[in-house]
Amino acid sequence: MPAIVVALAVFVAFFLGYRYYSKYLAERVYALDKDFVTPAREFEDGVDYVPTNKHILFGHHFTSVAGAAPIVGPAIAVFWGWLPALLWVTLGTIFASGAHDFGSIVVSARHRAQNMGTLTQSIINPRSRTLFLVIIFFLLTLVNAVFSIVIGTLFINNPGAVIPSAAVIPIAIVLGQVFYRLRMGIVVPTTIALVLLYAMIPVGQAFPVTVDPIANALGTDPLVVWVLLIFTYIWFAARLPVWVLLQPRDYINSYQLFVALGVIFLGVAVGFNTIEAPAIRTDLPEGSPFWFPFLFITIACGAISGFHSLVSSGTTSKQLANETDARYIGYMGSLGEGSLALASILACTAGLGAAAVWQENYADFATASAGGVGYFVEGVSTFVGNLGIPAGIGAIFISVVIITFAGTSLDTSVRLQRYVIQEIGQIIRVRLLARNLTLAATLAVLISIGLTLFPGGEVGEFAFGRLWRLFGTTNQLTAGLALTVIALWVFMRGRNPLAPIVPLVFLLTMTTWALFIQLGEFWQDDRLLFVIDAIIFVLALWLIVEAIAAFNRVRRQRRGEQAPAEER
Amino acid sequence: MRRWVELYRKLEEFNDEFMVSRWRSGLQREATQQQDALMAMLFLEALGVPNPTSYYSLELYPEFAEEFHRWHRRMGMNRFPESGFCC
Question: One GO biological process from the UniProt record (chain A) (predicted)?
Fold first, then answer.
């Protein structure tokens, strides 16, 4: 089937989702009120609470929620054929992610723009905040582990991407200096920065960089060397002031994302490539995980991701000028991420050429997991080739996009993890941990390195697929927590909570089921991952208990309120 | 021509806001932390803590007098006890 037909069908479904389902959510479930004074207006202080143009806020929300994850998950999940992945991405985006992201913004805006941690405490119960912190701790550690492997793998597969990816750092630093020190408008510097960045791609191709000599000298895998180098860089980068590197790099990344999406779908439209992979794979190799329930944790970002609730409630809700903007920003942001996941599915099924190549690439789940990102790069380079750009340049271009995205995610994640570790330090009353930011950052990096290097024995091979699935489970549990908050909030107001409850029940069932199956798998040959899986499994059960208890409490409260009314 | 200039200005405003808005509170927090460290270095002597650098930083006091009030309030001291300097 031609990739463009599939792309058009999904875009039509997204359009209908926005036109009808988000309207239903806005009017009947979240009951948006155009006269509601949002926190951005009520507490406007020019710093935290600033009413912001909805298009700017959408740009921020979208680029914050979209990263490397909606690319990696679908690139692995097409192992089960393109149809299950495509259906989960399309339906998940429309019915789960849309309701989750949109709802997180609304509930937060209705509670003085509180973040999700505080909302769990006030809407579910105080105990849930500890649950939230522990889930977030695992989520961030796994983000660090999987993204460091993704970056290292891309550097090894595309050594030409090393120089352009490294060049982003000085380019971003200079851009920040120009903006803040010279107080210049940023249109011209941005254009120069992007031109410079893309000019570095042929330079990178001419001068590929590898760490093989270092790895050989140390007697280790090149991926281990890259992982250690990446974490050393992240440790230093996380200590820099935000404006020096993180902010301008994130800003450049936003433009890179829009350019990449445009180039990919233009290439799909022009090239008319056909999908060569099977719709549903019937010849699964022995010992492979079955798509039900593993598809739903392999693709988290791109269908539904709890990480979005952190962005929606922490930042976006504080800048929401009108409550009715939440529909455009939250729901459209989900559709944007779904589009990125769609691009990944098409690249890995239509961009790799003949069916035999696909069969070889996706021979077994371990190969698919280790190579997924590489196949996406290869597929996109085919699409970019349709526009007359050489495949080698296209491969480096898209590798740089993924690397810079994963790099920014890592940087943000380590920064966040410092605060989580400090907060845990406060709870367990270890003052040194609670007060010393350097110690917290060092611990965050060391724990992440440990989780990257130790499981499975072989980095980037089998361990990556397992770590990715664990990352998916923590992401889905975070989404479960946010959906519980949203559903309870809707239920308390006497409205129909099915829109958040259906994805909540589905996610918790799939995640708990997958965690349970993995317990048996990990027990055989990976005790470290077994322990982590067991802890996350307990967290999932804890979340289910808290959710049921909270719903029962609200139901009793509602009955109590209704009874006197009926008596009257 | 004027229309193009106007359009360019709007694009620049949009872009500047796009660069800043997501990071505004984080940047402000970092700037406040740096400012607090600087204020502590400058005014420790005024709070009764011996500070070997105060002699050299004395001439900066007038520059920071206004900020001093905001700083001691931020640090939890609603009124500065020393008369004639602040509050």
Answer: cellular response to starvation
> What 3-state class would DSSP assign to A274?
strand
CB-based contact A50 B8, cutoff 8 Å = no
Question: Does B22 contact A315 at a Cβ distance shorter than 8 Å?
Answer: yes
pLDDT digits (tens, 9 = 90+) for A273-321: 999 999 999 989 988 889 989 999 999 999 999 989 988 987 799 899 9
Q: Across the interface, do B26 and A242 touch by the CB < 8 Å criterion?
A: yes
* A191 class by beta-carbon count within 10 Å (0-12 exposed, 13-18 middle, 19+ buried): exposed
B31 class by beta-carbon count within 10 Å (0-12 exposed, 13-18 middle, 19+ buried)? middle
Of A117, A511, A82, whose CA–CA distance to A305 is shortest? A511
Among positive and negative, which fits the CA dihedral A352, A353, A355, A361? negative
Given a contact cutoff of 8 angstroms between Cβ atoms, the answer to whether A321 and A348 are in contact is no
Check CB contact under 8 Å for A186 and B30. Answer: no
For A540, counting Cβ atoms within 10 Å of its Cβ (0-12 exposed, 13-18 middle, 19+ buried), the class is buried
Distance between CA A78 and CA A347 in Å, rounded? 10
Distance (Å) from the alpha carbon of B54 to chain A's nearest alpha carbon: 27
What is the sign of the dihedral through the CA atoms of A256, A262, A267 and A273? positive
Least confidently predicted of A264-273, A505-514, B64-73? B64-73
Residue A10: pLDDT above 80? yes
Q: How far is CA B34 from CA A295, A415, A513, B52, in A?
A: 47, 18, 49, 20
Q: Running DSSP on this structure, what letter comes out for residue A81?
A: -
Each residue of A222-277: pLDDT tens digit? 999 999 999 999 988 877 888 888 889 888 988 999 999 999 999 999 999 999 99
For A392-420, the pLDDT digits (tens) are 999 999 999 999 888 888 888 888 888 88
Q: Is A315 on the interface with B (CB under 8 A)?
A: yes
Q: How far is CA A269 from CA A88, A120, A399, A419, B2, in A?
A: 23, 44, 21, 45, 38
| Whole-angstrom distance, CA of residue A37 vs CA of residue A25 | 20
Q: Token pair for residue A20?
A: 């009808």
**Which of these, A39, A41, A138, A3, lies nearest to A542 by C-alpha position?**
A138
- Burial code (b: 16+ CB inside 10 Å, e: under 16) for A454-479 equals ebbeebbbbbbbbbbbbbbbbbbbbb
Judge contact between A105 and A317, C-beta under 8 A: yes
| A293: preceding bond cis by omega (within 30 degrees) | yes
Q: How many CB pairs under 8 A join A and B?
A: 60
Angle (CA) A560-A565-A568 rounded to 5° is 135
